[in-house]
Design brief:
By secondary structure, this protein is mainly alpha-helical. It is built from eleven helices and no strands. The two termini are about 35 Å apart.
Amino acid sequence: MNRVKTTKTSGITKTFTTMLKTELKLSLRGMDMFIFAICMPVVVLVILGIIYGNKPAFEGAEYTFLEQSFGALTTISICAGGVMGLPLVVSDYRGRGILKRYKVTPVSPMLILIVQVTIYTIYAVVSLILLYLMATLFFGFRFYGSPVDFAGGYLLVLVSMFSIGMMVGGIARNTKIAGVIASVLYFPMLIFSGATLPYEVMPAGLQKIADILPLTQGIKLLKAASLGQSVENMLVPLIIMCMIAFICILVSAKCFKWE
């Protein structure tokens, strides 16, 4: 019995690895995610570094404007993969009958979804590492908070954004509708949540509108974690991000369309 389980697990692992390599090559060949998830965060980092340099975030601040913005920059890749990339891939695979065909094979159709989530997670982690290295080497970036707290917040933001993408891709009737919904969610969050346009330079009225966006709360959470701010500053964003992840995962589980 144990040998059969081991053989089955080994087979699934091998299939997963093969699919991951193939899908990752296809993703890189398309260049979209490489540009929006890897290149764009670095470009925004360089622009902020050039404009603000080592200027304090505000008068009397112990950290620079760039250090304050680091948490926001790390979400650009998450937003690109989770809110734009994942819904389109999931709806496209369903529309072409790929998920349906996997149902009649020994491989679960869930495996291909896990592969896609893994790919976008790889993009996000590579982007995070690259941003940290660039900020540290060229702009004197210092990390003030706990790496454990930041990693936990980063994982929560990733799960929340990916759950939104999976929900959209799973319930949209076709790829066109999924693309429209993804665009409506992606571009406002990319521009107005503080990921590219710093939240601190927005007018008060625009900040109130930005607070409605899910990613804004995730960025607040990561900023507090990276700057080593008190737990009270993380509580509200933490609760909101947990609620978003829970609701989207629940809707996906109940309403996901495989064909």
